[in-house]
Amino acid sequence: DGGxxxxxxxxxxxxxxxxxxxxxxxxxxxxxxxxxxxxxxxLRLIYYSQIVNDFQxxxxxEGYSVSREKKESFPLTVTSAQKNPTAFYLCASRKGAPNxxxxxxxxxxxxxx
Amino acid sequence: xxxxxQHPSTLSVQEGDSAVIKCTYSDSASNYFPWYKQELGKGPxxxxxIRSNVGEKKDQRIAVTLNKTAKxxxxxxxxTQPEDSAVYFCAARDVTGxxxxxxxxxxxxxxxxx
Lengths: 113, 114
Hints:
The complex is a heterodimer. Chain A is mainly β. Helices cover 0% and strands 55% of the residues of chain A. Chain A has strands spanning 4-7, 10-13, 19-25, 31-37, 43-51, 54-57, 64-66, 76-78, 87-96, 99-104, 108-112. In chain A, a hairpin with a 2-residue loop joins strand 9 and strand 10. Chain A is globular. Chain B has strands at 4-7, 10-14, 19-25, 32-38, 45-51, 56-59, 62-67, 72-77, 86-94, 101-104, 108-113. In chain B, the strands form 2 sheets. In chain B, strands 2, 4, 5, 9, 10 and 11 form a 6-stranded mixed sheet that branches. In chain B, strands 1-3-8-7-6 form a 5-stranded antiparallel sheet, with no helix packed on it. The termini of chain B are far apart. Chains A and B meet through strand 4, strand 5, strand 9 and strand 10 of A and strand 4, strand 5 and strand 10 of B.
């Protein structure tokens, strides 16, 4: 089945630790995105990438980093500089212009120990 | 950039009634408006979308209307069923920076009661 796979489903971070969230897609989509979701709030864009080896900051990039070495993969690292990392993280992908439809993975819940 | 406001934040209806969720956007250049449904612990799923050259779109019990002049769009669900209970998000495509980003509303928790 084609889709977007996020792992792990649950992740715990200790003080001062970097953690990496995985996102893989086999839809042959060009663009990939990371959103953060907090209770009662909308989805806020962290980073996005339109092609391999290129990515742009979203609205809340501070404390996060990404890489796009392969078309299928767009991992997100939550660094120790992110002081409030507890949230539900969603990865999404899009085929590319002119197709605007965005497809989401099932999310990773990150909590601080 | 784009700013999207969504109302109400919670909505409770009786099974079989209609539900309406409204969103407004700020950038008159925005041209694509999707709606997503998110069930507990899952990622959002696209349920319907509309482009700015269309005023209304329907898919079975779901419809979306767009008023470009007023910069608002709405989701209409008729004959609601318990499985419609979820959080619904509206979004607008941000046309700055190449138009590759979606800006989301804050969500509406819909509860369909028996």
